[in-house]
Every structure is written in C-alpha cells, then in structure tokens.
Design a protein that fits this description.
- This protein is mostly helical.
- The protein is built from 13 helices and four strands.
- It has a two-stranded antiparallel sheet.
- Strand 1 and strand 2 form a beta hairpin.
- Helix 1 packs antiparallel against helix 2 and helix 2 runs parallel beside helix 4.
- The radius of gyration is 24 Å and the shape is globular.
- The N terminus is likely disordered.
Length: about 350
C-alpha cells in the first residue's frame, strides 16, 4: 500500500485504492464514505455520495452524517426526519434525528422523535383479542386454531401475569423476562429439549460506548438472561448447553458517530453445565490493518456451523451425515468441532 508524504496510507486512501480496482462495488464505496467522514474529509465524502455508487438508503444515512459533522443541524434533522417518515426506524436513525433536533434547540421535538418509534410498535394483543381470533379460527381453520391454542398455552406457561414486561422496562429487562419464561418451560418434566430466543437491539451504529454505554447495557442484559437460565433450570442446568450466536460482526474501527457498522468476523459463546468450558478456541487473525478482511473487518477463521454441529453431535448424538445434509445442507466441509460438551 502506498504512503503519502512519507506517512502510511489512511483507511480512506486504502479503500479508494480497492475501489479503483472494483469501481462498481457499492459496499466499498459506502465504506470509503464512512472512512472519509471519520477522517473529516467531508468534501471527498460528499463527492463519493454524489456519484451514485452508494445505494440510496445508505447514501441518505451517510449524507445525514456529513451534515452532522459539518454541524448543519437543520440539514441533518431534515435528512433523518425524511428517512423516519418513510418508515426507517433503525435506532441509529432515530438517535441521529433526536440529536440533530436537540442541537438545533428543538428539545421537545427531539424527545418526541425518541418516543414516536415506541408508540408505533405493535402492542401485545389483549387476551380478549386472542380469544376472538381463536373462535374465528375454530370455525374457519381448525389446524390454525390448534396451533394458536398451543401457542397461547405456551405463552401462559412461560410468562404468567407476574412475568409480563412492565412499561418502561426496556429491552434489557425483557431479556431477563424472556429467559426466565423459557427456563421455566424447559425445566418441566414434559418441557421441550431445545429452545430458541432472539434478542434484538444490537445494531450499534451510533454511541456504542465502552465499559459504559449502549453495548455495555445490552451485554448486561445478556448476562442477566444467562443467569435466569442457570437459576430457573435448577438441577437441569448441569445437562444444558446454550449457544449465543449472531448474524454478523462489527467493523474493527469506530465510525463517525461513535459506533460500529456491519462487519464480518465475530464470536460465539457457549454456556451451561454441560459445556467443556473455561477456555477460548480461536485462530486469532489479529487487528493489524494488513490482517483485516477488506481493510475493515475482523477476518472470520471459524465456521459457525462447525461449532453448532459440534454441540448437536455431542449433546444429542446427531450423526455427521444428518448434520451435513439435513441440518446444514451442503455443509460437509464444515466438520463438527470436537470436545465442546463434557
């Protein structure tokens, strides 16, 4: 990689070199814009945004970031308000809109912007609504009625009135509640052997934080959820394996709004009394610029399917052929990782 005035090339300069080799790569173009924003090269960021290579949605978001870095708060607020009005309700968009409005002196509108997404969320169906739907399905679609009945019974067993989320509890509190309900179900003698939970809110494009902040709060919620499983499962904890996995990693560098964007390499966590734990299994690629994937991400060195296959093989005795053909079709090269379960 070339040096400029005797100094190593910046991330932006390196991405531009990659982009020259692959000029129609929209993701590379967007990454170059983000690097330009982080390096305060705002004119170059705007030039890249104007040539049409970045997809429209991401270009709108990045244009708002440029306005924020220029402290053009009315322009940034208008950009994010337009995205929000069009149905874009990602936390980063909502936060940037609120921030821009607040910096413009419109604090009431900033608070309203934060509250409006919550108001738009679909509320939990009331019990009488569920009963009316069940009555309708029993007359029109018995199969669907049976599935709904089972679902309602499952929800009642898992939660109960005392476990329903309380107003203002937030996503972190909800993690513990959901885990508590799942543990209650799985601890029963006739309970399920396998469960799957989804915790959202991890898209930390802005104000990710370190030891304190948004990511720390989310990790605290996850820790609390695992604690709920351990206490709720009781003696069954010693036979339990929990796999914590995510769809993708985050970029290795902080972006222009003190967050990280979608990346590649990440981690998976195993917890439970049946886990052969107390260790870290990795082929660590390092974070030196030369070792990053596409000059931006932690490189992936382990196939997540191999980890999950290893758990399924050791915990449930599922054969390698079934894992490769039925559980993860066409995944024979990803061999089950050995020794994950005691």
């Amino acid at each position: 990689m070339q040096a400029i005035d005797g100094q190593p090339a910046s991330l932006f300069d390196r991405l531009i070199e990659f982009l020259e080799q692959d000029p129609q790569n929209a993701n590379l173009a967007a990454d170059a814009v983000e690097a330009a924003i982080a390096e305060e090269r705002l004119d170059q960021a705007e030039a890249l945004l104007s040539d049409g290579r970045v997809d429209e949605r991401r270009a709108a978001y990045l244009s708002g970031l440029v306005a924020m870095r220029r402290q053009d708060w009315p322009g940034a607020a208008a950009q994010y308000q337009a995205m929000f009005d069009a149905g874009e309700e990602a936390p980063a968009i909502r936060f940037n809109l609120a921030w821009s409005l607040a910096m413009e002196g419109r604090s009431d509108q900033a608070l309203a912007a934060l509250d409006e997404t919550t108001a738009r969320a679909l509320p939990q169906a009331a019990d009488d609504t569920a009963m009316r739907l069940l009555d309708l399905y029993q007359h029109r679609d018995p199969t669907l009625a049976s599935a709904l009945t089972q679902g309602l019974q499952l929800e009642k067993q898992a939660q109960g009135d005392e476990m329903k989320p309380k107003p203002g509890g937030g996503g972190v509190a909800a993690m513990r509640l959901v885990a508590r309900g799942a543990a209650k179900l799985m601890a029963a003698d006739d309970g399920p052997r396998i469960g799957a939970l989804a915790f959202d809110g991890w898209d930390t494009h802005a104000n990710e934080g370190g030891p304190v902040g948004r990511l720390a709060q989310l990790l605290g919620g996850l820790d609390g959820a695992l604690a709920e499983f351990q206490s709720g499962l009781g003696a069954r904890w010693r036979d339990t394996v929990i796999v914590v996995a995510t769809e993708f990693g985050r970029t290795a560098r902080i972006n222009g709004t003190e967050g990280t964007d979608h990346g590649t390499g990440t981690i998976a966590l195993l917890a439970g009394g049946a886990v052969n734990g107390g260790r870290m299994i990795t082929d660590w690629p390092g974070l030196k610029p030369a070792n990053l994937y596409q000059a931006r991400d932690l490189a992936a060195t382990t196939d997540l399917r191999a980890v999950i296959k290893g758990v399924l093989h050791d915990q449930f005795g599922i054969g390698e052929r079934v894992l490769a053909d039925a559980v993860f079709p066409d995944s024979a090269p990803a061999k089950p990782m050995k020794g994950l379960v005691v």
